[in-house]
Each structure stands twice: as C-alpha cells, then as structure tokens.
Amino acid sequence: MIKNNSFKNSNKKSIESLLPIYLLTGENNWKIEKSISRLKMRFGDDSERELNFQQFDFLEVSVDDILNVCKTLPFLSSKRLVIARNVHKLSNDELEKIIEYAKSPSPYCCLVLIAETVWDNSNLKNSTRKIRDKLKNFIGKMGKVYDFRPISFRGLESWVRERCREREVRINPAAVYLLTNFLGNDLWNLESEVEKLAIYVGKGEVIDQKTVQLLVAGNPDINIFKFLDYLSEKKESEAYSSLRSIFFRTKPGKLQIESLRILGTMRWYFKRLLKIKSLIEKKIDIKQMGQILSAKNFAIKKLKNQQKNFSKKDLRNCIFYLLEADEGIKRGKQKAEIILETLVSKILNI
Known about the structure:
5-stranded parallel β-sheet, 3 domains, 17 helices, alpha/beta, disordered N terminus, two-stranded parallel sheet, Rossmann fold, Zinc Finger, Delta Prime, domain 3, Helicase, Ruva Protein, domain 3, 7 strands
C-alpha cells in the first residue's frame, strides 16, 4: 500500500513538473512519437490518462476549439495533456492565435504542438518565417522547443546498438551493416526488426549476420523494395527472382491481396521516379528534393540514378500498365502472379 501511494505522489510531481507548452519539430517521426509516449507515461496508467488526454489535428479541428480545451480544468489531476498535430499547416492568422495563447498558457494544461517538418525552412515566405520564429521564441520562453532531425546514415549504427543494449543483447558489426543496408533510415522498421532479432537470440546473446539474413531478409516489405530496385535498375533475372520469392512466401489464399499490395507500392514508387525526374529538370538541389519527397539523401540519390533508365513517357506508360494490371487482378482475368510477371516484362522492355 505504501508503494502505491509513493508511486502516485511521484507521478503527481512528474505531472506538475511538465511545462505548459512544447513545440516538437523535425522530420524524425520516431523521436517525436517517442517523446509523446514519454509525456503520456507521466500521467500514470491508461485509466488515469484517458481522463486528461486529448489528441487533435489542426487540419480537422479549429485552433479556437483546441485552445478552449487547453483552458478547461483537468479532472482529478493537476494538468491535462493536449497533443495538436500539423501546426505547420496553419495560416499566419491562426499561428497568431497560438502566439497569443503561448504568451500566457494555461497552468493546468501541457500543450504539445507537433510539426513533422523543417520548421526554419529557408524556402518559406518571409511572412511565414517571421511568424514561425515569433511562435518559437514565445514557446521557448514559456516552455521548450525540440528539433528532431533525421539520423545520418553513419549515426544509424550507434542507434541500432543502443536499441540492442535496451533489449540486453549485442550485435556484431557485420550484422549492423547488413541491417541498416536492408532497412535504410526507417527507424520504426529498424526498431521492430531489432525487437524481433532480440527475442530470437535471447538476452545476453549476440545478433550475427546469419540471424539478420534469416529473419530480416525474409520480410515481405524489404523484399518488395529490393524487387523495385532490381526492376528500376532493369536487372531482369534479379527482378523476376525477387518477385517469385515474394509469391513463394505468400499463402496461396492471400496471393490476390499480396499482388494488389505489390501493385500499390509499385505505383507509389514509379510516381516518385516521375516526380524526381521533374525536379531534376527544374534544377532543384538534393536537399530541396528531400524536403519535397520527405526522403533522406541516400534515398534521393538512389532515385536519381534509377530514373535515368526511363524517359518521362516511359514512366507514364509504367503507371498506365500498373492501372491495367490492377484492373486485371480485381476482375480475375488471369492468375495474379501471371499478371504481375507480364507487367514486369513490359516494364523491363520499355
């Protein structure tokens, strides 16, 4: 009983120490979401949290309505937690309303503003940059501002090792290299795979290259992207082999669903190739390309190399072929795998 009271008192102090307003910005979605999770944990268990936790999107709820929630007294707690996403999508007039609130925020609320973008983007209009700077400065006085930047490819190795340490396992350099090359800078996917690898080897053990090849190389999402790389680079035998590998790992009753998923990913990818080709024509630099496509530098460089294998007309034809294949699978004209292999043949020979 004493431990219970002690926990509740400790939790109360934890809530009271929260600042009234935070601004979390940057393209590192993993860091942002982990920060939100830590803030939520300070509000105790799920039942306690539900009473004083609200999450909104500025694209769906007005600034006035969200600020009114912030001014509402919490229930059986010293504070309420309000998460408000997409603050960067607001107009200057709407940002002014938040600035007014930030000058004197409610002491009974912890408002967390989320902007999954580069807040100080030099490409913004002067008026927007000024208003963002103004909001950032006021939040800095009354609360805290965090800018979560993407982890560099070099930094990924230490990030992976840290995730392994948290799970009480070790990972050798070859395994780290293989894992980061398979998954790139996708932190959510990396964390999920580290979790799977750690459970497989057990606490105190070492994750080696063979384990990564066994458990990660068989991931269907990874196989789809490797298939797309081979297809975009016109590597015929590898493209067919990787596609058949996906089919081999798919249960017979799920082939149609999996084929439609592959088509959706292919359509998304070829649209990106078309977009990058347009950006190259406009002489947009690689940093701006990354911002426009929400992609890391290494991914942009790969896309730039792959688009060289296609003209704009070729890419538009590919997208048309994808739509044809989608319709063919949905109408059951042929087996899904035959339709996809025919599609691959058309793209390779374009």
